[in-house]
């Protein structure tokens, strides 16, 4: 019945489950690397530009240790950018970061909802554990061995990372137009109904109805030459086939 | 005969798929409506009412699309639209402001109530460790080498606290940042290490209690206990309380892992972490304030003891107000735009 990719399934009152394709360790690691580069570059850029401005010229020499203004305007903001990048952006971008967005994944709860501020903070606090002993060793290992690819922070916050299906409105309409072909919605419904009841209709009725439908939607281009009822059905199927 | 039926079924399915795709514009409207409601960009009641109809329509069409056109982009679009409608209908709009307000006004006080027994036990462990450290160093003074650096020991033995003249070495602003960063990391570790069945938390709380008691015993031996108290009192009331709070949160996680109950270990851990984790944000904010006090006020000899006590007790009252939700105004429930 369902050809949806394996992933998180959320029950629904309609009886049709919500299917959310889970992001694996590869996608997550890729997103993390992108984010890591972004925050590193941003923090370094702040540091370098700040130091250049502070020195009043093209010199990157560090001022004497413990110089208050330099620490407050150059070092501290760079540290804030680097260390608060994930929690702040996930809060502001609703479970996304630039890295996650570029890979097409985002954070949701196990019920498919956007996580609240508390859950986003908890999953980021647990980066302390996930990043042990080095290079996210604990987090990566857990992602590989757990069924849903979760790191410790996700287990604590009850979150998962899922793919966003990026199908644009234009793409949908193009897909629909290709499939609809010459039929409009009403025509497609009539054709479907006719084909469904084909065996139960008497042969003259089959031919008459098929002819009428072909004439209506294909006009002069319709092949209305005399034929047996099997051929009429083939013509009707060709009309209905996208 | 079998071939005939198969051919007819294919043709019928194609026609049904075409019928389905004829509703693409309706799906777009439904998805746009769900997106508006999810972002809280509309408070139109009609939109909210329509969302329930959209949800049923999308469910119906998705079920057909999964059967008729499983590999199409249209099905993917429907999956996305249905998931969004489901989340919006069941969980409402996501607003950062109201989310943070709820965090401070409702979730944090609720977590504090739930944590109350853990706070009592953690504080008890901290106090007992402190008494243990005090007794140990009081009885065997040489053991101070286990808890304090040689420079600290030398400074106290020469009759002055290591905190004296601290501002001559490091400016307050830098000192504050160093202190608050260190304290935040220690608090977060005390919380996260609850992951090790509570043992990590127990270790951090125990060690900190032992150190505090030992250092007090040592400086007391040299007649400097009053000075140390004067240094600690302004920032220490909140700093030590936050340490116990983080430890309590870590202990709750540890207990959830040790005694998971019927829900299972992972689910129990998740519930405990999510419940207690919200307290950590308040703890981090409070430690920023404590760090500023420790950097600017505690080492500054111009502040007399009564002023320090007033600052310490006052800031502790702010902490209680924040954690009990009294500091953040409660508002009525957010507009139920996404809940038809």
Fill in the keyword field for this structure:
heterodimer; A: 242 residues; 2 domains; two-stranded antiparallel sheet; 4 strands; 7% strand; elongated; disordered N terminus; B: 340 residues; mainly alpha; Methane Monooxygenase Hydroxylase, Chain G, domain 1; disordered C terminus
Main beta sheet strand tally, sense and closure of chain B: none
H/E series of chain A, N to C? EEHHHEHHHHEHHHH
Order of strands in the sheet with the most strands of chain A? 1-2
Average pLDDT over all residues of chain A? 85
Helix content of chain A: 55-70%
The stretches of 5 or more residues of chain B where confidence is low (pLDDT under 50) are 1-7, 333-340
What is the radius of gyration of chain B computed over CA atoms, rounded to a whole number of angstroms? 30 Å
* Average pLDDT figure of chain B: 85
Strand content of chain B: under 5%
Supply the helix-strand structural class of chain B: mainly alpha
Largest sheet, strands/sense/barrel of chain A: 2 strands, antiparallel
In the residues of chain A, how many domains can be counted? 2
Outline the low-pLDDT stretches of chain A. Answer: 1-5
Structural class of chain A: mainly alpha
Describe the structure.
Chain A has 242 residues and is mainly alpha-helical. Chain A has helices at residues 25-55, 68-92, 98-103, 117-125, 127-130, 137-145, 152-157, 169-180, 185-197, 203-218, 229-240, and strands at 7-10, 18-21, 105-109, 159-163. Chain A folds into two domains: 7-163, no CATH class; 171-240, no CATH class. Chain A has eleven helices and four strands; from the N terminus they run E-E-H-H-H-E-H-H-H-H-E-H-H-H-H. In chain A, strands 1-2 form a two-stranded antiparallel sheet. A two-stranded antiparallel ribbon of chain A has the order 3-4. In chain A, strand 1 (7-10) and strand 2 form a beta hairpin. The longest helix of chain A is centred in the N-terminal third of the chain and has 31 residues, at 25-55. Chain A is elongated. Chain B is mainly alpha-helical. Chain B has two domains: 2-91, Methane Monooxygenase Hydroxylase, Chain G, domain 1, CATH 1.20.58; 96-323, no CATH class. In chain B, helix 5 packs across helix 10 and helix 10 packs parallel to helix 12 (305-323). The relative contact order of chain B is 0.13. The interface between A and B is large, with 70 and 76 residues.
